[in-house]
Amino acid sequence: MSEVILELEMKRESKSFTDSLYAILTGAGLFSGPKYMLSALSGMASIFSVHERLLPFCVSAYGEWGTVHKRAADNLGIFTVTDAGRTRHPTFKSYQQDAVEWIKASLDRGLAAVYWLPEFGVIHGYDDADRIFYVQDGFSSESRIVLYDNFGINSTPFWYAQIFGGKVDIPVKDMTLEALRMALDDWETPYSVPPDRKIASGRMAYSYYISALEQGDFDAHGAVYILDSFRVSRNEIMLFLQDTAILFPGLNEAVKCYEQLVCNFGAPDRWVDAENRRRAWSPHVVPALVDILKEAERLEEHAMRIFKKISGQYPDLSRSTVPRWGLHSAR
């Protein structure tokens, strides 16, 4: 019987996956720099997903996690392996016990694992004697306990885990260019979880949020939570562009777009009813909030045109070359 506990700190400040990834990679010495840089370079900052009724779960409903999260690790030059599935599947127990073993092996190598709670958290230790994992959720300094036998079982119908390995060095300019292209991909993808059209992405996400506010039929908690996440991510993009604008002529104009967008929203609780402990929009601020969202969409649209212009000046083999197994047909 053995026990391993990795000393790291997962703190909720951004998207839960970003917070988890940052804690794991910085703890293992695989990433150095501020969280906003990791968030933008991984493509996570550019993601914006909105449910038609502003239900809070949509913040994490941005497509197939395995694909999105592998893309995030790839642009950072980090090797990664993910596994996930539905807990109702008859093979779940087999996958569950297999995942327990490879996560323990990763912890033995000094690398924690991303784990869906929900939302995402970090498995940073285990104890074979008690058959438990130690999990940080970012909201408390205390670790949560997950029994091996309960691994993957949560309030949602699915489970997810991800581990990491070695690293290759990618030039910052190349990572930055790919981050701009990932932002463009997200902006121009209206529905990230097809065929479900209750959740919109990118440019379309603005339309869903604005429409919900104007119609008045939305989840009060979700409305605040989604916009909190949006504000954080746009601030991350602004800081990232301020640091990298020197790499590409013309990128300074996009910096100004995001600086104006962030400035327009002001302090986090500017729009919140102070008397409501659950944090909800004050009804009288909705018209002004709609106007600011429309302006934010215009600013991002302009920034995306700049990203597109810059992208067009360089080869893009990952999008212009058909993969070995074909792009659309199964093999």
From TrEMBL:
Organism: Paenibacillus albilobatus
Name this protein carries in UniProt: Uncharacterized protein
